Each structure stands twice: as C-alpha cells, then as structure tokens.
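Suppose a colleague, Dr. K., hands you the sequence of a protein chain of 419 amino acids and asks what its three-dimensional shape might be. Before reaching for any lab equipment, you can write down a predicted structure in token form. Begin with the sequence itself:
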Amino acid sequence: MDENESISQVTDDPFASVKVPEYKNLIIGRFFFIMALRMMGTLVGWWIYELTNDPFAIGLIGLAEVIPALTMALYSGHVIDISEKRNLLLKTVSLYTLCAGILLFLSTPFINDHISRHQISIGIYSVIFCTGIIRSFTGPNFTALIGTIVPRKYLQNATTWSQGSWLSASVVGHASGGFMIALIGNMGTMIVICSLLIISFFILMQLKPKPVLRNLGEGRTWESVQQGLRFVYKTKELLGAFSLDMFAVLFGGAVAMVPVYARDILKIGAIGFGWLNAAADIGSIIMVIVLTISPIRKRQGRKLFFAVAGFGACIILFGLSKWFLLSFFALLISGMLDGISVVVRGTVMQLKTPDHLRGRVSSVSSMFVNSSNELGQFESGVTAKLMGVVPSVVFGGCMTIAVVILTWVKSPSLRKFEY
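The predicted structure, expressed as tokens, is then:
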C-alpha cells in the first residue's frame, strides 16, 4: 500500500461511518445480539459451576462450543460468500434465539424438580454445542457485512466503531448478567436474554439485501475454501496478526476462571463476579473510545506486539492477586491493551481483504481468533485441574509473553507493518 492510499484510510471525522444509516442499524442490532450472548456466557459459566462445583466443568463449556465452531468455520465462509448475507444473518439469529429458549426451559423450576443436576448439565452442553455451529456463520457474516456497507475510506473508522459497540455490549452483558443472576435468578436472566435476541432480530431486519458476489466457483466448495486459506497464508501481516492473537488468547484465557476466583478466592459473590467478568471489556471500550477520537497513525504492528505482551503481564498479576480491586484493575488494564490489539487486527483484515473473499477470510479469522476464546477456556479448565487454579492462570500469562517474543522474531513483516 502506498503512502497516499494509507493516508486515505484514516478519516478525521470520528463519526464518519455511523453516519451511514445501514451501518448504524448493523452495529445497533449486533449490540443487542452480543449483549445477549455475553449474558448467556456469564450465566452458563456460573450455572455450570453451581451445578458441578468443578472448575474443569467450566472448561468443558469452551470445548463444547469450539469443536463445532472450528469444524464448520471454513465451510461457513464459503456459504457466506455465495449467500445473500442479510437473509443468512436473520436465519442464524433466529436459531440462536431458539437455543436460548431451550436454555430458558432448562432453567425452570419444573426441570429442576424432575431431572438431576447431571442431566441439566448435559442439556446445557448440548445447547452450547449447537450455538457453536450457529456462531461459525454469525460472527464472520457480521464482519463481512461491514465491508459491503461502509465506503473503503471509512473502514478503519467503521472497524473501530464495530469493536466499540461489540465491547460495550460485552461490558453491559457481563456486568448485568452477574447482577441479574443475583437479583432474578437463572430463569429470569434467561428471559431477558431471549428478549434481547428478539430485539436484535427486528433491528437487523432493517438491513437491505446484499448482492451475491459469485467470483468464486461456487460449485466447487473445497476449491472455494482453499482460496480463503491461501489468501491468509500469503498475506503475512494477516497471518501474523491472527496467529499472535490466537495464541495470546489461548494461553491468556484467565476470564474462564473468574467464577472460581469470585466464589472461592476473592469471595465476592454473584454481583462481584459480574463486575470482575466485565472488567476486561470495560478496559477495552475505554481504549476503543480513545482510538476512535485519536486513531493510531504509525507503527501499528510494533504497538500490537507491545499491547499483547502487556496483556500477558496483566494476566499474571490477576492470577496472583488476592484482593478484588487489584484483580479488577489487572483485568481492566488487560482489556485496554487487548482493545489496541483488536482494532489493529480488525483494521488490517478489512483493508487487506477483497470483497469477494470477505466471508472466507472472516471465517479463517474466527478459527484463529474467536475460537481461541473457547479453546482458551478449555485450556484453563485442564490446567486448573492439573496445576490448580492460580498456577494455571499465571502459567497462561507467561505463555502469552513467550508467544509475543516468538512472533516478534518470526514475523518481521507484522512488526514493521503500518497502514
């Protein structure tokens, strides 16, 4: 990318992309969708630990979701690129709402009176497995839609707003999820989650149908999938950014153990659990607001490395902390540093990806980035069982820093990357 093109990607108007009405509907609809998902994640983690009293059971939630998400990821990218994206998005949001309805049924007094805790746990894992399949289509489709709605010159601004709305929804979902568990219980929280998903569906209905770009040989599915993989492999900045984030999140997934810290180590209850669970996202939204007003204009690749290394250090501090405020601020700062990583990686992907490959590249991204959250949750559950909770979190932070050092050496193009 030449210098003039690079300059054209950064607008001085912090509200440039949200002045596009359709983009505004997209991020508002996704706000309610992500808020519901985060509340569900908060509830399910607390619910499973309440049913089993086993940290490893929390890790199994991540495994239940990541297996279908990884298995379907490449195929979902192909489907997104040959489908009318609005219609596909509405279908997947509807299916997610159905899954939430099943969890609502499992949380009722009738079910609790008639089946065992073990059977309820199996039911929860089964629903989460289904949401993993749906998520493999929904997440990449949201990302692909951004590039079809927003003019290219506003893509950095749109990516920042997209991440800001996502993180805001995460903050509200995590924190309010903890409050609602304490105030209205599991069933009441699930009713709220289902309502948010329905609201999201009706907002997303306002999007316009998108033309299907058929420059991919849609009759040859595997060949189409390979095009996306080859593009990411050949685009070293994308490959490096995806790999760095994947391993950092995989080993730094301390948030998976927050229910254990909240109940057994810090002893702060459901409300404290909600705040601790939201701390990283609060930090991320603070940073995204800063980056919306004052974008990073040079040495973005180098700053990405420093941000991920700092994230690992914060995870180590969280693991060792025995005080709520120190734990909260460790996660808050980790979220601020992660916010830098998210914006840089997302902007690189939007700027580097041609329109006809957006679905497949977004799906590859979901394999590297999104699924690493669930794999990280499983890794945290396994290491907690083998090492104990605190050593497992500290180990994860140390491994994150080691990954940064290795990627720094192996990916000089990412280190030197600017946009």
